[in-house]
Amino acid sequence: MKKVILLNGSPRAGGNTEILCRACAEAIEKNGCEAEIISFRGKSFRSCIACNKCKENPGECAIKEDGLNEIIEKIKKAEGLIVASPVYFGTARGDMMSAIQRIAMVSYGGDRFLSGMVGGPIAVGRRGGHTATIQELLMFYFINDMIVAGSDYWNIAFGKLPGEVEEDSEGLAVIAKFGGNVANIINKLN
Prior knowledge:
Blueprint: E1 3-8, H1 16-30, E2 34-39, H2 53-56, H3 68-76, E3 80-88, E4 91-92, H4 94-109, E5 118-125, H5 130-143, E6 147-148, E7 156-158, H6 169-189
Parallel strand pairs: 1-2, 1-3, 3-5, 5-6, 5-7
Antiparallel strand pairs: 3-4
Helix pairs in contact: 1-6
């Protein structure tokens, strides 16, 4: 079965980003693909150190202590990748950006495993910064030759306190449609 990895960039257990990832994963599975959510809770990802060792040892980042190489191995075996981030001061959470920049560098340094992968970003926040976060995360997809799925609206939802996003029925519906579209594109390509 084709697989989609969802990176939950929130440090909170049971938070709004996790709720959106679950809604997205459920739609992916209803549309014939497997979904795995990987939480950033309890993890801390350093930024790329521009050592270029990922070119010497293709497929692997030289920073080994934070567990990102294990996540990269899972991504390499998948057909889809979704990144979900809470909005922090108008942009994506720093750990998310550090992680996806290193994932991209490893892809570039090796066999370009991200190329042709299907996915897109999700952003959740209290009042604003969603659009800037989506745009920031989209750069990862475009420069890596990835296929971005759409929905009926931007892949955003509103909520501050844990669980508040469940009151955003439109946001949940948009995220579910997006997840279904990711799975449908993967199934059509394969």
